[in-house]
Amino acid sequence: MNPQYKRLDRNDAAVLLVDHQAGLLSLVRDIDPDRFRNNVLALGDLADYFGLPTILTTSFETGPNGPLVPELKAQFPDAPYIARPGQINAWDNEDFVAAVRATGRKQLIIAGVVTEVCVAFPALSAIEAGYEVFVVTDASGTFNALTRDSAWRRMEAAGAQLMTWFGVACELHRDWRNDIEGLGRLFSNHIPDYRNLMSSYDTLTQMG
Amino acid sequence: MNPQYKRLDRNDAAVLLVDHQAGLLSLVRDIDPDRFRNNVLALGDLADYFGLPTILTTSFETGPNGPLVPELKAQFPDAPYIARPGQINAWDNEDFVAAVRATGRKQLIIAGVVTEVCVAFPALSAIEAGYEVFVVTDASGTFNALTRDSAWRRMEAAGAQLMTWFGVACELHRDWRNDIEGLGRLFSNHIPDYRNLMSSYDTLTQMG
Amino acid sequence: MNPQYKRLDRNDAAVLLVDHQAGLLSLVRDIDPDRFRNNVLALGDLADYFGLPTILTTSFETGPNGPLVPELKAQFPDAPYIARPGQINAWDNEDFVAAVRATGRKQLIIAGVVTEVCVAFPALSAIEAGYEVFVVTDASGTFNALTRDSAWRRMEAAGAQLMTWFGVACELHRDWRNDIEGLGRLFSNHIPDYRNLMSSYDTLTQMG
Amino acid sequence: MNPQYKRLDRNDAAVLLVDHQAGLLSLVRDIDPDRFRNNVLALGDLADYFGLPTILTTSFETGPNGPLVPELKAQFPDAPYIARPGQINAWDNEDFVAAVRATGRKQLIIAGVVTEVCVAFPALSAIEAGYEVFVVTDASGTFNALTRDSAWRRMEAAGAQLMTWFGVACELHRDWRNDIEGLGRLFSNHIPDYRNLMSSYDTLTQMG
Amino acid sequence: MNPQYKRLDRNDAAVLLVDHQAGLLSLVRDIDPDRFRNNVLALGDLADYFGLPTILTTSFETGPNGPLVPELKAQFPDAPYIARPGQINAWDNEDFVAAVRATGRKQLIIAGVVTEVCVAFPALSAIEAGYEVFVVTDASGTFNALTRDSAWRRMEAAGAQLMTWFGVACELHRDWRNDIEGLGRLFSNHIPDYRNLMSSYDTLTQMG
Amino acid sequence: MNPQYKRLDRNDAAVLLVDHQAGLLSLVRDIDPDRFRNNVLALGDLADYFGLPTILTTSFETGPNGPLVPELKAQFPDAPYIARPGQINAWDNEDFVAAVRATGRKQLIIAGVVTEVCVAFPALSAIEAGYEVFVVTDASGTFNALTRDSAWRRMEAAGAQLMTWFGVACELHRDWRNDIEGLGRLFSNHIPDYRNLMSSYDTLTQMG
Amino acid sequence: MNPQYKRLDRNDAAVLLVDHQAGLLSLVRDIDPDRFRNNVLALGDLADYFGLPTILTTSFETGPNGPLVPELKAQFPDAPYIARPGQINAWDNEDFVAAVRATGRKQLIIAGVVTEVCVAFPALSAIEAGYEVFVVTDASGTFNALTRDSAWRRMEAAGAQLMTWFGVACELHRDWRNDIEGLGRLFSNHIPDYRNLMSSYDTLTQMG
Amino acid sequence: MNPQYKRLDRNDAAVLLVDHQAGLLSLVRDIDPDRFRNNVLALGDLADYFGLPTILTTSFETGPNGPLVPELKAQFPDAPYIARPGQINAWDNEDFVAAVRATGRKQLIIAGVVTEVCVAFPALSAIEAGYEVFVVTDASGTFNALTRDSAWRRMEAAGAQLMTWFGVACELHRDWRNDIEGLGRLFSNHIPDYRNLMSSYDTLTQMG
């Protein structure tokens, strides 16, 4: 028996965004803030683009942890929004688990702040509950590279798949012919090198 | 059968602090000394805060290895304290194993200096003896990143879970409502960015 | 005689943007592309915000070097735009020097791609011609750190002042009371950490 | 039962070169361009030297992704060349899979751009289809080290073996006596340090 | 004429602490937060220990920039405390300059957040005004290494001397015989490696 | 069933030193040459100190690869010395395998140059042949960190244990009481920080 | 009086290549060997392209230092070639200085191995003798970054200008219109990113 | 007037070794301990080899700072040895300055621990007193790269020349013909890559 390729499927995947809050973001130091901000917004955009059920959750928004990043809040006005009263692991919150179940999806794409807690805890719980878990490593952040590595290894050992937002988008899209312009716009908006390729291409072909 | 989430439980966990001695600390070069000192003291504080049984052990305190870090000694005046007469692997010392058994706990949180010896050897022995082992990577130190990586991989391959003190604290605490002030103080004392968040928050809310 | 503080003055400064072209940007590898893109756009925004005379120049836009970054083109529709027919050093182009002279300014804020050529050559020429030169290091890019360091040292040895877009903005603004909202918006749009501070502040003060 | 050594065999291996296109190469930032170019050409040379069936594939050559690197095109004029009409995962293209099957080989040596998509997707599919997969890590490139690590871990967890072009060449060659001069030339052309050893050796022995 | 050694003199030096505010500290990413916090408090302790006139200043404490780090506020209850109403360069604030003048000192030890603005601007102004300026590089922080280097070079080119808190303390103290215990305590409290040396020494000598 | 702790035993271990040749060492760039030389000699010293059967092998000593490092040759004058006529994988050489078998040991400690070939190939073969393999990562070297990581992962996936010379020595020694002076001398000769601890200790205790 | 722009002039510049020998190159560890080899050959190509008088010198070619890199020897068959009998500083060799004088040039472009000796010594001597010195930093190599930085600072303090081969080429060429194809070929051969830009451009324009 | 080349002269240079003490060495973290130990001993060997007057000084040898590195003490049994009773700057100690004056030398080669204090302070004093100062950067160590850079810049701004032990040796030796074997032995003992070159050379030439 060969190992199975557990492949993301846009009809079976949901997105969980955990604790991307303005205060907690000041704790993130394993990735440059410009790059991190871009990755988080790209993940939001791809969830939107592929029409994936998306769940937002926060921890103590009115305390030092601060409010959810406004762009995410604005992008998913109708998404389940679970302001947890105290549970550190979002999966310990019944409303959160209920919202996940309500999606009917079996593949969970998770990102959050900070990686070894807000991402790893629900990821490990979800795997135990039978879900396929895909961690978006570049839209999750934490104190430093050492703590990040520990968190990644723990999740990986439990069977989580580590991906980045770009890999997630490509695996969901499958074939450019499904929508060249839409995916191209997503990439152009969040990958400066890709945007440059397109600018050069447009200039040259418009000249012809 | 899904993989089980082996989750730290404050009623089933004990802490083993191995050879955090003043002389040996001069060998630690895979982590900045300011950060390392902070992490070790944070681990001590969390063991104290959660009331976890804690065991101290040292190797040749009166020789070049030097005395145990005084803060740890002071923090656990009644803890079992095993000054090993020669065993490099603490688990080869019967008193140490007896002290572990006496806790009645099955989850062992281990940190020490240097990682590939004083942490890895007892970790591998404890796993063989049937314990669940959680290595606190950021409160353990060694010569350089290369030796650290080799040690982490060896422990991980045997089933140890790699965590950091922050993840340990959060997984033990479970829910902020158990004690907001106590956990907040622990974080504020050992995470400068968190302290700053709280300072700003206090200033703004006191103004209101 | 004390050394004089050569301080940027919004009434005496002009901005020169040299060869920020889509193709040439693929050569820039001494800075992360997300951060670099942000810095270049921030410099454009500050030039706009402070109403500084701004000059654009490019080299072979219709060849492999590619077109000017569209955002810069759009932001300065009426700025002098010198598409150099071949001169590598923009200062060797009479139209460019004439455009600089026409501003009547004596302080030149320069950024471009690549640093050791498109920035350094006109910077050295401008210094020789009697201008005060301020190089925006984080809105200029090149092949790698080694070539960047060589370029910085050469310009510095000739008397250029090395700054970043943030320092330039602060030195031009002088006093927050001149316009709190405008400068705050500039920072919020280009410094994720600052944006987060403002989000948290707004949430807390709106709750009060 | 001991673990089996899955060893590359020149009679059972084929090479898949995926999307080494001039435009996409500008996205590669996890490896220095001089080194990357050298590694890719070395992989081409070794495929040629060992007479391995080689398959080329590209994605939208006439768009922003750009043409295949000309040297690879020139080196394999008769190789199957699949210009995919839209499939992101080359394994989703029937012609590609047919070309792989036609080689009759069971060991696939894969390299491409970018690693987490163009390499990882067909690698995971090929493993599922029963092939042994060897990823040439240093002839594959992507956005940055973080995305690279995620891709490597995902493929490794599925059973892919990570190698470099040098290890591939040595494992295929088995014994220097099969052809000292040919392998020596391959190394001398692509490993500057090895070339220097040979230059020194030649000078000294020609003097004797 | 040989170059003069401009040497710090405890009878002629004053300390300026500029904008070490809880919010602004979240912008500091060119130095690890544990280390930075330690350095800032060490500078406060040395100012206290040597009895140097110390001046505190902040920018918009009740806004997003946040309050002064509480420890500094507590350590200098009687120091001049200038909450600037808007001036970005502290030297543009008359009260601040008056406070500096009132010390009667000619050597200014400056640290602050962020380096290229809150440190560099008053440093350049003070040099122009005839002061000797010593920048405490490791108690000043900013966005990243690139912006830090630009700031250091600009100040250095103007004649500022770059030092660290440890060098400042040693140069002020001159001779251990002035007070072994006091300086030893300062070092032990802020240099973990030094603390370890002292712990080992005390253990060994107490055993004798 | 708990995972077994496969522990090095001085009565069951042998050391294989593969291709530490003067020419090949110029290819090693993943570790500083001062540190690497020290580690290789430390491994030789520990093999000698513990009286482990040791096997030397080289590839084309009289060609560009150069002679075995003279210190290793001198240290093991009576050890089996297999100058391979062409086999790249030492395990493909019958004399080498015979020498390994003749030791009667089941634990193989392997180090060599370059890691992904001269170490990984015999390590994978030895595992397949039923041996326990311990790779000394810090006495093995290769082209760069990327190729090193690929080699480590491949060996690890096959069941090799990654260790460093220091961990090997400690695991073999078990208890300081077996010989304090001998192990202390080994450490003092190859760990500068340990040497310093001993120098300080000796000075203080001799004063007493 | 403004600082003068000392600008490279193809009619007044000569190139000195010092000790790029196969053995000495194994000492170079401050730059990746693939990149370094490329830079050295690029410098050779540009000297050739601009027709600059070029002087080669070596130290003990028949000893451990090894022969001059063959490509350089082949490229300049008629250049003065000074095999120094023992002088470490090439400028201490009368034939070398005579060869320099014979060029009649006043601008010396110097590169070599190792930087702090073979480059720095003749650079300092040439400056003292009244020449303008331009060090090609990326075609010079040494033991590590620390020794490189010391060498650069010493030369810079004496007035040498630090450049890279790309900057040298651009400053000599002045205007693309002098020869677009020739300079383009030089860049395409030695800058992979530039080659890719040209490949994409050619493909698109040939399609039109 | 051209800048003068201040060149080390073996008849006019002396070596000052400041506080290379076993305890203080544990503070050195800006350089790998294996490399640092090698550099310090190499500097001792070269002082010995060139017969340069050498002066040793220490600070509180019987306290936590620990004893002078034993090898240095053994190598210079008859050298002036100033155990300072308290002065932090060695130049504040009259015996030290008298010992320097007694050498009659005007060029001072200085190394020590830690760089920004034990090296920088006497270096600045010596420059003021009219000496030419050469700092051996790689035989001096301190807390981290940030503090090192500050120290280097301060000394450089005052006119000190930054060199490494290798550059010092080469500049003193001038011509290999003065003693090929002696200098070769110095290099072979302290530069592993050079030792390898010599091993290969010897093997090949002895075969001839």
Task: Note down, in words, how this protein is organized.
Chains A, B, C, D, E, F, G, H: InterPro entries: Hydrolase_YcaC-like (IPR053152), Isochorismatase-like_dom (IPR000868), Isochorismatase-like_sf (IPR036380), YcaC (IPR048239). Chains A, B, C, D, E, F, G, H: It comes from Nitrogeniibacter mangrovi. Chains A, B, C, D, E, F, G, H: Pfam families: Isochorismatase. Chains A, B, C, D, E, F, G, H: Keywords: Hydrolase. Chains A, B, C, D, E, F, G, H: Residues 14-165 form the Isochorismatase-like domain. The structure is a homooctamer of 208-residue chains. With 208 residues, chain A is α/β, with parallel strands linked by helices. Chain A folds into 2 domains: 13-174, Rossmann fold (3-Layer(aba) Sandwich); 178-208, no CATH class. In chain A, 46% of the residues lie in helices and 14% in strands. The first copy, chain A, has 8 helices and 6 strands, in the order E-H-E-H-E-H-E-H-E-H-E-H-H-H. Chain A has helices spanning 33-49, 70-75, 94-103, 115-128, 145-157, 165-173, 180-190, 192-207; strands at residues 13-18, 54-59, 81-84, 107-112, 132-136, 161-163. Chain A has a 6-stranded parallel β-sheet with strand order 3-2-1-4-5-6, sandwiched between helices. In chain A, helix 5 links the parallel strand 5 (132-136) and strand 6 (161-163). In chain A, helix 1 runs antiparallel to helix 7, helix 4 (115-128) runs parallel beside helix 5 (145-157) and helix 7 (180-190) crosses helix 8 (192-207). Chain A is globular, with a radius of gyration of 17 Å. The relative contact order of chain A is 0.17. The model of chain A has no long low-confidence stretch (mean pLDDT 96). Chain F binds chain G through residues 26, 29, 32-33, 144, and chain G through 26, 29, 32-33, 144.
